[in-house]
Structure formats: structure tokens, C-alpha cells
Amino acid sequence: NYIGGKEEEEVFKAVDLPYIPPELREDRGEIEAGLQNKLPKLLELGEIKGDLHVHSKYSDGAATLSEIAEKARKMGLQWVAVCDHSQSLKVAGGVSVEDLRRKRREIEIFNQSSSDIKLLCGTEVDILNDGSLDYPDEILKELDFVIAAIHTGFKQDEATLTTRMVKAMENPYVHSIAHPTGRIINEREGYSLNLEQVFAKAVQTNTCLEINAYFKRLDLNDILSKTARDKGIKLTIGTDAHILDQMEYLRLGVFVARRGWLEKGDVLNTMSYDQLIHFLKRKK
Ligand SMILES: [Zn+2]
Ligand SMILES: [Zn+2]
Fold first, then answer.
1. What angle, 0 to 180 degrees and rounded to 10, lies between the N-to-C axes of helices 158-170 and 195-205?
2. Distance, CA 212 to ligand 2 centroid (Å)?
3. How far is the CA of 240 from the centre of ligand 1 (A)?
4. Complex ipTM
5. Which of 7, 53, 119, 140 is 20 to 30 Å from 78 at the Cα level?
6. What does the pLDDT look like over 186-245, one tens digit per residue?
7. Where does the record place the Polymerase/histidinol phosphatase N-terminal domain (predicted)?
């Protein structure tokens, strides 16, 4: 007796399984899930409405706000969260409080005159050595979207780094942690972190974790994205684009998400602008 078929679907059918998408064929429980009809309906690129991590000229990005919006329009997106570096990250054009307010006003004016694309005024705020953030709360609360990230002290021990990250998540204005493990593919291992504590704190504080879609990061990776999803943590996909073309890495983030079993409801990027703004106010 041979089992086969013309198309893959028929092969799965012959062994009484629903079709398992290629991304899930990693022996991570997909057969069992298939037998119980519990396979996820994987996220599709077409469901993505925006990018949650783009740098502009305000910090070390190359593009103006309107150029970013125009690129988003060409990509069929509806909104972009412009998250520039914070004040103490001088090597990356960290934005002063004064310039951040100027950026916020520019975005307000842009949004009033733009009928399709909306911008969110965000920041990628540095998590400082003591776990405090690089802007005071009264500044963070004026922003639409706040991602916090570790960019310094990579060599610190696990307890120190974990405490920094966990403390940042306790801040009511931090929505997501950018590139949570800090790995750079072929260049650097991730920071030493107690990920169990990080995930637990994300659940407790309703903080999201990022899938950074920049091709050298892809962080969280697929396996950790699945762990986050299993715990009910929402993910934010951000390209970390510093030049316009890098916004197209958005699809790499979707590929990671699919390998991590993520569905439409697991990522904030599938929300409309209004839904997103409403959701982001929840944590505060
Ligand atoms: Zn960063
Ligand atoms: Zn960034």
C-alpha cells in the first residue's frame, strides 16, 4: 500500500491529518495539534496594517516623516510607529525632550492633513544601567507608542540584565520590549537573560515583546515567539528600518511569526489605527 497524492494536501488527507503549513513542520507539536484540529490559522502578510519600529531623521534614520508615510502608502500599509532613539544614546542621534515634542507636533499636523496613512509618535527608549528609562514618565505618557530596549552594558551578568528589563516592563508607559534577546546573527549572542522571568513579567504587566524584523536580528526568534504566544503575550513586529527600503523587511517579521505559530490576533500590527490607539491606552 502506497500513500500519496498529487498535491501535498492529499498526502495529509491520506493519513487523516489536516494540511500542516511548511513553517510548522518542525516537530514542535504540529502533528498532535493537527489530530486535535488545533492548528493555528497562521498570520498572513496581507493582514499586516503597519510597522511598529521605524527610525526617522529625528534620530539616526535617513528619512523624514512624510517620506516614511509615503513608503508605507506604497507598501499598502495604514500606519507607522516612528520610534526614534532616546536622549542619552548620543551615538545614534538620541532625541532630546525638546526635539521629541517638536516631533510630536509635526506628527499631529501630519495626521490632521493625511486621510489615509497615520503616524504614531513613538520612541525606542533606552533602558539605563539601573533599569530606569531614558525619558521621565511625564514625557513617555505623551507618546502613542513606547518600546524600551537595552543598547548598553551587554556584558553585564544575567541577574543585572534581567532586572533592568523587568524593571522597564513595570513602567506603565512601556508597551513593548524591542529586540528582547539582543542577538545579532553571526555577530553576537543574545544578552544573558533569564527569559522565564522576562516572559512572566510580560504577562503580569501586559507588556508586549517585539519580533524585530531587521534581517540581522529576527529577535524574538520563532521558538521564543511561540513561547510568548503560548503564554498569551502579544507580539509587535517592527522592522527597525533606518532607511526606507528596510521597511520591506516587514515580511521577514511575518515569516518569523508564522514559524512561531502566530495568528492574526497575536500581533498588534493587524489592528487598524483606531483599534491600535485604543489598545495602547489600556496599559496606562
Ligand atoms: Zn534598538
Ligand atoms: Zn531601533
1. 10
2. 9
3. 7
4. 0.99
5. 140
6. 999 999 999 999 999 999 999 999 999 999 999 999 999 999 999 999 999 999 999 999
7. 50-129
